[in-house]
Amino acid sequence: GLSSTTSLGLALSTMGLLKGIDPILTADLLWILRSMGHGDKIAIVDCNFPAAEVATKTISKKSPILLTVSLPEALSAICSLLPLDYFEECPAFHMSPQEGFELPPAGKEVIDQLKASIGEHSPDVTVRPMERFTFYEEARKCFAIVQTLERRPYGNVILTKGVIGPDGKDLKPM
């Protein structure tokens, strides 16, 4: 038979799974995504972001932590469910360095990957940079903050929720 440790690991890895929903999306995160309305924003951030403090200023005051997930993995799962706002000029922003500082190579790598993760589900969305301190202020206006295990610098994104149309797809302007 299975050892109790193996049984527990197997049980934990299969608990709460739903068909068609990425298992890294926790119950709290699913509640947040469903509770957000058109135009609400969500910040998905790295492990160094001051998520607990910033979350106290958000609409929901929630900050679920995805302990074993990189930023690109979290974005892929979230964007598989979350419609982006095509009525906004830019519904996705990533953090960028403040003036006078350069983006380190690891930061460029995570930004390239986060753009690919968003593009996987919303290929025609442009992801634009947002200066670091402006990003902190905008994150405080979000519906919630989702913290990941991402360790690369500048692995932070703000997404604006759009609308799902009658056909079940992201609603886009005519």
From TrEMBL:
Does Phosphoprotein show up as a keyword for this record?
no
Which transformation does this protein catalyse, written as a reaction? Answer: alpha-L-fucose = beta-L-fucose
A Pfam family reported for this protein in Swiss-Prot or TrEMBL: RbsD_FucU
Question: What's the EC number here?
Answer: 5.1.3.29
Molecular functions (GO terms): fucose binding; L-fucose mutarotase activity
User: Which SUPFAM superfamilies does the UniProt entry name for this protein?
Assistant: RbsD-like
Provide this UniProt record's keywords sorted from A to Z: Isomerase
- Isomerase keyword on record: yes
What organism does the UniProt record list as the source? Answer: Helicotheca tamesis
Q: Which GO terms describe its biological process?
A: fucose metabolic process
Q: What is this protein called?
A: L-fucose mutarotase
